[in-house]
Amino acid sequence: MKEEVGKASTPEKSYLFRADDNYTKGDPVGFELASVDAQEAEIQDFQEHVLDKESGQTSRYVSFSTAIAIPGGGGSRRFTKKNKILKVALEALQNLEAEGKIMIYTPEKVAELISQHPKKKIRNLANDVKTAMEKNGEIIMEGQIPGDLIFWAK
Questions:
Q1: How confident is the model over 28-42, as pLDDT tens digits?
Q2: Exposure letters 98-137 (e unless 16+ CB within 10 A, then b)
Q3: What DSSP character marks residue 37?
């Protein structure tokens, strides 16, 4: 996993970034794995999270980007109106994953999982989701990231 995320990273390989206009310093981001909150979130699948999620909807997933800005309009800056961008050390996220507290999904992994869906209509979305994630340098997390690991990017 470390190699895949590192490969996807561009300017600051040691951090992932997240736009979040409603974030309060010190708060965690995301729902704990397998929690009631995660199970009751409005969005439960990757394709809806990546292609259709609207501001204000809850999702069992949390998106980060490998960069604040990516040529062509991608990156975390695209998803903020108040220029509030957070950063988390990639190593800290990998440690949480090793401890079983979060799961990290690269575009390749998400496309692989979607392509295994029993419904052909969903399987056919795998490449669209992968392309959208790659355009934004998107990495998806499932689980909760503690607030003490989250910092303002600027």
A1: 999 999 999 999 999
A2: eeeebebbbbebbbeebeebeeeebeebbeebbebbbebb
A3: H
